Amino acid sequence: MNGTIRHINDELTTHERQLFRGAEAHEQDYVDIIGQFAKIITPIGILLNAILFVVIRVKSMRTIINVHLSNLAVADATHLILIMSTAWAIEYTHTDSGAYLALIIASSTVHLASYCFVSVIAVERFSAVRQPLTQRARASKSRAAKVSAGVWVVAVVTGVLGGLAFNTNYVTNVVFSQVCVAILLLIHLATFTITVSSYIYIVVKLCHSDRKRQAGQTRRVYPVVRMLIINTAVFFVLNSMDIAFTVINLILLFSLHSGAEAVLDIFWTSLDLSFCIAIFRPINCSINTLVYSVTSSQYRAAFLEAFPPLAKLLRQRRRCCRPQQTEQIELRTIPPAKAAQESPVQAI
């Protein structure tokens, strides 16, 4: 953000420079809070991204959808590592250095990869519901691997543009920054529109198929679709401000010649949005495994299979709890007076 202000810094009056210094000081306070928060949440989030380990250990979990979910977990875990690295880099490295720029580009890359993989999963489910036979015939793990590789290539290219768009130390052309931010906005809008449209079609199609079922037949349960819809909803709720942040930055770049007061108002809004995004992004990258555990019994079973000591400990705890619960139930259901009537020996 400081780089954006440098475009108009030479045209500011003394009072306007003081206002912008106050905004930059406020930005530094945000950076300090975000850095401390990142040091706490990122180690927890990295440990919680256990789906990759589960897919590796449990053979039954190596499905096509889980290939994309594993790539999403890789992107989330990498993003958390980069967030923690950026927090340390801000303390010990100058933000104008090439290492800091590399961290920003890498962070932008994995974040865009997350968006793309969420959309790929939605399109895969959409194809499976719309054309089940065709999708089953062409679906394979090799094809999923090729699609994943293509997503990473697109993410790297757009991540480089996203990293350079906000760094005027290396890019001083405002038009180039405007084009890069516009491309990022289009990617966010496209992934959001494709994902939401796909899941709306899936839900409508499945509800329509349930209505056609004859009376007396039980309704089918779609645990995978339910899990994916809930996970996608959580993803976009926690990342909902990304689109707003990109729009605000695009407006800011187009308003550089509109006057210092207008730029300052937009700059304050951008600061608040960036702070919220810096809090919600690590949370989103950390809770995917929790969402899978709550919504999918298959994943819970696979998780226990991937961690045998945890499964053994859980079985031992259940065995210890069962006798105590049974004894309490018997004592509560058999009052002492009734027990004396039924036992003549005790009555004598």
From TrEMBL:
Cellular compartments per GO CC: plasma membrane
Entry's Gene Ontology molecular function annotations: G protein-coupled receptor activity
Membrane topology according to the record: Multi-pass membrane protein
Domain G-protein coupled receptors family 1 profile residues, every copy: 47-292
Pfam families: 7tm_1
Cellular compartments annotated: Membrane
Membrane-spanning ranges: 37-56, 68-88, 100-123, 144-164, 176-204, 225-256
Keyword Phosphoprotein: no
Domain of life of the organism encoding this protein: Eukaryota
Keyword entries, A-Z: G-protein coupled receptor, Membrane, Receptor, Transducer, Transmembrane, Transmembrane helix
Family as reported in the entry's similarity comment: Belongs to the G-protein coupled receptor 1 family.
Protein name: G-protein coupled receptors family 1 profile domain-containing protein
Lineage start: Eukaryota, Metazoa, Echinodermata, Eleutherozoa, Asterozoa
